Amino acid sequence: MFSSSFLRLILLLCLLSSSFSSTASSSNSTAADQTLRPQEELQKLKLIRQELDKINKPAVKTIQAISLFIVVNLINSPDGDVIDCVSTHQQPAFDHPLLQGQRPMDPPEIPEGYNKDDESYEEDSQLWSLSGESCPEGTIPIRRTTEQDMLRASSISRFGRKIRRVRRDSTNNGHEHAVGYVTGRQYYGAKASINVWSPRVTSQYEFSLSQIWVIAGSFTHDLNTIEAGWQISPELYGDTYPRFFTYWTSDAYRTTGCYNLLCSGFVQTNRRIAIGAAISPRSSYKGALVGYWPAFLFTHLKQHGSMVQFGGEIVNNRPGGSHTTTQMGSGHFAGEGFGKASYFRNLQIVDWDNTLIPVSNLKILADHPNCYDIRGGTNRVWGNYFYYGGPGKNPRCP
Predict the structure, then answer these.
(1) Phi and psi (nearest 5°) for 265?
(2) Residue from 51, 206, 227, 235 carrying the catalytic annotation
(3) Residue 282, phi-psi category: left (phi > 0), alpha (psi -120 to 50), beta (remainder)
(4) Which residues fall within 8 angstroms of residue 26, CB to CB, at 6 or more apart?
(5) 41 is catalytic
(6) 114-133: per-residue pLDDT in tens?
(7) Active site residue 313
(8) Are 261 and 127 spatial neighbours (Cβ–Cβ below 8 Å)?
């Protein structure tokens, strides 16, 4: 595990609603076992390749890695990803009927109170650019999706999506949380600094993440969220590296939304940051505008959020009938404090006049406190903060 890097993250409601004024290499093929059910396997591969044709866009340039508003202090580690430099107007977002044939809008306005000095970043902050390679002007870097990625998914239709859950107390589908949250006003974004760890994830179909949610609607069929942070997801990425990610939904994770750029939705404008790339503690960048979500994707969030959450989430599949040993945060309980427990600090929200202000009336919730807990506080340096996380299964969490 490591924590020498941290992630400074601003998640703004960049929901813009006015009108928008060489070929990629084929994906890695998989030698599927066609001896037991050859017709079914062939049909599955056909469907996978159709989906890959939608996700992987024609690339201007391809780079092989060596072995709302988002600001991050991230670092990349060896992951072997293939990065395609895709024309900004050909990224998956522009498959949406309301965006087809158009181009990205101008970046959203940065909120008052945001330190402009934090916008600088190192050119080699992600591994795929360490060799000096970069994506040219007018393109963005996209991590190429492979057949292996899709074959790991529980189903093709659910690839790149969270399992549906509809309650914040996460009594459904094994989702467990330790979060700080604010309600009671209109929210137009959020900001926090997060330290990055490498928690153990013990099952392919479990994950561990730390993120910010900007939320509107009810925790039923009409939940709207935009999300960003870091996650470990063996099913999605095929490894256990912590990776920078985004997510959105407009119907409580039922049929809309996805991770990163795996469906039409989030519009990326930055050509140096690859969403879904791994994080490591070698080099870092303070922050950069990554992109935005168009307002038409949402029902409630097209106006503002009604809740902001900060914190961790895991999936517990109860292997062998007992609680998972998948860790949250650093894998240490909140009471172990600085250097051991994971934290969120300097929590802020964006107000109605596009101003960053400290959160007030922060509430904390751990829905399985014997497995993962949370402790909040405030001081002059960290402002509003909390420690959170835990090991999962232990004598108090059988």
Answers:
(1) 165, -95
(2) 227
(3) alpha
(4) none
(5) no
(6) 876 555 444 445 666 666 77
(7) yes
(8) no
